[in-house]
């Protein structure tokens, strides 16, 4: 007899693991199937955006994130402050980039505390795996999915593994299995977009004359783009001679050396290649994130050029958006219609990222026309308002979900709330560790808390001494708030509770 569970997740990368954590905290029974025998140690993203980092803080990983970021900062500092070297390092005020053009300092941004997290992808995956183990999540490696059979009431997933073939029957399936997603292909999702035009390389290598690869950071040349640092031995290159002939072929030392010499125009040699990967600017987005009982998240739903760690951030926020909603439906707290908001909220965010990554590729090309456009963008970015706009676009902090009629009452509704310290010294996100919603109540006699307590046990109520009062979904999206100077105003609170927390 086929074992039946709530959710099968394909992929034990960062997106799959966070999806499993969200669902498990929401009371769902989850099995994660991963094709690889062990986590990949290949260098991919060096950081992720503030909203993605906040999703981890809300789920018990504050200490792990801070420790990993400290380790990364130490490595960068050792690299950029090395003695006996002629390497020139750009100012520490650098806070990210748009196509290699520096963004403003955090203290010039509207919300400087919401900052990117400089944590590499292997470290991120390790902390998520540890959190999953602590929650007792069933992660099965070397399980390669071979078939997906969806019906009106369930999904059957089949796989092969070293121990033999197997299958599970689940209420739902989430494909978090990357840009070449097996789940997406087997389930029939359309994946339209644009074909690749160039090749990206990322490597960790020892070079014979690193002092020639200056300044540290992004360098656009007549033959492409190269970047050296900011972690020891890291090379990043854009080769505009075309897409890779065989993306799956091993990346060799000779290939990295040839591309580095061509894009940099420098007489450097690669002595040792420790790791390397290549990919292209293939840019695609599914028409919908859901087909029946099958969902997609992360690169399975969207692929694009890897500028600013946006793909990793997008995927983690997909998981944060879907997990609590699917758990609420599985518990019977909410109707199936709640699940339609996943694609409605997340797909427009991905569309915006695809657009900005295409724009970055356009102004990085080595032709004169692209160079002229790049120079114009650089001059515009000298204006604080333009730089701030682009910075908030790249970090995602300007994200606002369309919550329908309930978002018309205040511009904060639909935005993702940042973390801050409450009066008792506890941080806001520390009150959301169990995957719950949160009410911050400044109303007289805790009137708002009484309304919430009578409606649902899924929202934790915290009394605050001053307004505004605010209802947060488990993903920290502001679902309701009153005006700062009207602490007794609870108009719209019951509607928000019905929309997000009660069937």
Task: Explain this structure.
- The protein is of the alpha+beta class.
- The chain has helices at residues 14-25, 50-57, 62-80, 121-134, 182-187, 253-264, 310-331, 340-364, 368-380, 384-395, 447-455, 493-500; strands spanning 4-10, 30-34, 97-98, 101-102, 138-141, 144-150, 155-160, 166-175, 193-194, 199-207, 217-221, 224-228, 234-239, 270-280, 283-285, 290-291, 294-296, 302-303, 437-441, 459-463, 470-472, 478-481.
- A hairpin with a 2-residue loop joins strand 16 (290-291) and strand 17.
- The chain is globular, with a radius of gyration of 23 Å.
- The chain has twelve helices and 22 strands.
- Strands 1, 2, 5, 6, 7, 8, 16 and 17 form an eight-stranded mixed beta sheet that branches.
- Helix 7 (310-331) runs antiparallel to helix 8.
- Helix content is 32%, strand content 21%.
- The relative contact order is 0.14.
Which structural traits does this protein have?
503 residues, globular, five-stranded antiparallel β-sheet, alpha+beta, 12 helices, eight-stranded mixed β-sheet, 22 strands
What is the secondary structure topology, with strand pairs?
Blueprint: E1 4-10, H1 14-25, E2 30-34, H2 50-57, H3 62-80, E3 97-98, E4 101-102, H4 121-134, E5 138-141, E6 144-150, E7 155-160, E8 166-175, H5 182-187, E9 193-194, E10 199-207, E11 217-221, E12 224-228, E13 234-239, H6 253-264, E14 270-280, E15 283-285, E16 290-291, E17 294-296, E18 302-303, H7 310-331, H8 340-364, H9 368-380, H10 384-395, E19 437-441, H11 447-455, E20 459-463, E21 470-472, E22 478-481, H12 493-500
Parallel strand pairs: 1-2, 1-8, 2-5, 8-17, 19-20
Antiparallel strand pairs: 3-4, 6-7, 7-8, 9-15, 10-13, 10-14, 11-12, 12-13, 15-18, 16-17, 19-21, 21-22
Helix pairs in contact: 1-4, 1-7, 2-7, 7-8, 11-12
């Amino acid at each position: 007899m086929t074992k039946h569970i709530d959710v099968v997740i394909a992929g034990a990368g960062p997106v799959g693991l966070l999806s499993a954590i969200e669902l498990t905290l929401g009371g769902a029974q989850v099995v994660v199937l991963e094709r690889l025998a062990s986590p990949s140690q290949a260098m991919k993203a060096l950081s992720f955006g503030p909203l993605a980092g906040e999703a981890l803080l809300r789920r018990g990983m504050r200490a792990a994130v801070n420790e990993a970021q400290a380790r990364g900062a130490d490595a960068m500092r050792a690299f950029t402050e090395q003695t006996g070297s002629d390497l020139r390092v750009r100012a520490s005020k650098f806070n990210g980039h748009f196509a290699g053009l520096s963004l403003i300092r955090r203290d010039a941004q509207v919300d400087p505390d919401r900052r990117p997290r400089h944590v590499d992808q292997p470290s991120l995956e390790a902390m998520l795996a540890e959190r999953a183990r602590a929650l007792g999540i069933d992660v099965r490696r070397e399980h390669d999915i071979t078939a997906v059979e969806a019906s009106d009431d369930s999904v059957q997933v089949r796989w092969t593994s070293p121990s033999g073939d197997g299958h599970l029957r689940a209420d739902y399936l989430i494909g978090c299995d990357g840009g070449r997603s097996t789940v997406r292909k087997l389930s029939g999702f359309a994946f339209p977009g644009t074909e690749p035009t160039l090749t990206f390389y990322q490597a960790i290598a020892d070079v014979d004359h690193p002092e020639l690869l200056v300044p540290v950071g992004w360098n656009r040349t007549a033959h492409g783009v190269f970047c050296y640092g900011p972690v020891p031995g890291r090379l990043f290159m854009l080769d505009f001679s075309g897409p890779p002939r065989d993306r799956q072929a091993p990346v060799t030392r000779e290939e990295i050396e040839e591309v580095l010499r061509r894009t940099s125009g420098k007489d450097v040699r690669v002595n040792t290649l420790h790791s390397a990967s290549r990919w292209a600017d293939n840019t695609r987005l599914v028409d919908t994130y859901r087909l029946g009982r099958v969902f997609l998240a992360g690169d399975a739903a969207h692929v694009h050029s890897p500028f600013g760690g946006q793909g990793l951030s997008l995927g983690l926020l997909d998981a944060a958006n879907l997990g609590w909603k699917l758990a609420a439906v599985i518990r019977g707290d909410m109707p199936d219609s709640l699940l339609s908001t996943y694609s409605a909220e997340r797909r427009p965010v991905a569309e915006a990222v695809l657009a900005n990554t295409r724009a970055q590729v356009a102004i990085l090309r080595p032709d004169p026309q692209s160079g002229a456009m790049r120079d114009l963008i650089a001059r515009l970015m000298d204006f604080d308002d333009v730089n701030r706009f682009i910075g908030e676009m790249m970090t995602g902090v300007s994200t606002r979900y369309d919550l329908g009629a309930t978002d018309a009452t205040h511009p904060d509704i639909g935005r993702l709330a940042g973390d801050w310290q409450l009066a008792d010294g506890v941080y806001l996100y520390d009150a959301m560790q169990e995957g719950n919603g949160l009410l911050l109540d400044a109303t007289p006699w805790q009137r708002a808390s009484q309304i919430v307590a009578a409606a649902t046990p899924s929202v934790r109520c915290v009394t605050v001494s001053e307004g505004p009062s605010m209802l947060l979904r488990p993903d920290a999206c502001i679902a309701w708030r009153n005006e700062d100077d009207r602490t007794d105003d609870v108009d719209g609170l019951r509607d928000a509770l019905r929309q997000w927390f009660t069937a």
